[in-house]
Specification:
Elements lengths: L2 E6 L20 H8 L4 E7 L20 E4 L2 E4 L25 E5 L22 H7 L4 E7 L1 H14 L3 E10 L6 H11 L3 E2 L1
Parallel strand pairs: 1-2, 1-6, 2-5, 6-7, 7-8
Antiparallel strand pairs: 3-4
Helix pairs in contact: 3-4
Bound molecules: pyrazine-2-carboxylic acid and zinc ion.
Pyrazine-2-carboxylic acid (VGL) binds next to helix 3.
Length: about 200
């Protein structure tokens, strides 16, 4: 079965020194590069927000980063501004082997809705187009790596499983934000969704 490596959000803002830094985020770059050769296709996702994005705490007067608000599509964590379109922090980590990617898929570019998953925005309805791409190429086995384990990696892998792909998260090639135990909670939800944790 043709298989794809889906590399989630390996961008400077999620690495130490970035605006939404994930501890150890830069430690996984070399391992991800090494994995690429084992797959028939490599897809990179890129979190890509306009400056007025609704997921940024700065755009909610009085709100603090990492608090939760109710959006029309459900609860939303408010984040420090990150991965702003065209900013250096939105760029990939310079050591990531971006030349090996078949496809780069951007997400989160609509101001009023966030998109953790590589497949759907956070309303679980608005598609990014990735599922169609993978199906047309017959890529049915998907391995997920990158940042962050408990948000974009988990949401992507769970959507993949629901869509009928075989989804595995290679946990040593991820790092978590871990807000209030979100890492363990994400692991449990992934297992229940039929995602393999490797
Ligand atoms: C992510 C929070 C906000 C992620 C993206 O890549 O996990 N987390 N935007
Ligand atoms: Zn984001």
């Amino acid at each position: 079965m043709p298989k794809a490596l889906i590399v989630i959000d390996m961008q400077l803002d999620f690495c130490p020194g970035g605006r939404l830094a994930v501890a150890g985020g830069d430690e996984i770059v070399a391992g991800i590069n090494d994995l690429m050769a084992d797959y028939d296709a490599v897809v990179l996702t890129q979190d890509w927000h306009p400056h007025d994005h609704a997921s940024f705490a700065d755009n909610h007067p009085g709100a603090t980063a990492f608090s939760e608000v109710a959006m029309p599509y459900g609860p939303q964590v408010l984040w420090p501004a990150h991965c702003v379109i065209g900013s250096p922090g939105a760029g990939f980590h310079p050591a990531l082997a971006v030349d090996c990617a078949d496809l780069v898929i951007r997400k989160g570019f609509r101001p009023q809705i966030d998109s953790y998953s590589a497949f759907y925005e956070n309303d679980h309805r608005t598609a990014t187009g990735l599922a169609g791409y993978l199906r047309e190429r017959d890529l049915t086995e998907l391995a997920f790596v990158g940042l962050a384990h408990d948000f974009c990696v988990a949401w992507s892998a769970m959507d993949a499983a629901r869509l009928g792909f075989r989804a595995t998260v290679i946990e040593e090639a991820t790092r978590a934000i871990d807000l209030d135990g979100s890492r363990e909670a994400a692991r449990e939800r992934m297992r229940q969704a039929g995602v393999t944790l490797a």
